[in-house]
Design a protein that fits this description.
This protein is about 65% helix and about 0% strand. By secondary structure, it is mainly alpha-helical. It has one domain. Helix 2 runs antiparallel to helix 3, helix 3 packs parallel to helix 5 and helix 4 runs antiparallel to helix 5.
Length: about 100
């Protein structure tokens, strides 16, 4: 009985872990290409740096042209996860550098 309960618990935790560990970027089309407009609306909030705005636009454009999230580069994923809300160009350049190093 105890062993069956543990197997059931593990069987329930595996799908939960899969969804929790997926990229935190969410779109209406989970396995289709992300929608450009949705990407802009989600990741541009609070961003006032011109550099950050331009890099987010590029990342959203490339993501929307990719073949689902599996085609999005590590660099673009990092940008979309970390660039939102950046208020000055110096901070934007720091995020860009960090994402470049992280994605190499």
């Amino acid at each position: 009985m105890v062993r069956t309960c543990n197997v059931t618990r593990v069987a329930l935790l595996i799908p939960l872990a899969f969804f929790l560990l997926m990229p935190s970027i969410s779109y209406s089309g989970w396995f289709g290409p992300p929608d450009y407009e949705e990407c802009i609306l989600e990741h541009m909030k609070g961003t006032t740096s011109g550099t950050a705005i331009n890099i987010i636009r590029g990342a959203c454009r490339r993501a929307s042209q990719s073949k689902g999230w599996f085609g999005v580069s590590d660099f673009d994923e990092c940008i979309l996860e970390n660039m939102q809300g950046v208020e000055n160009d110096s901070a934007a350049n720091s995020v860009i550098g960090a994402c470049r190093r992280k994605s190499q």
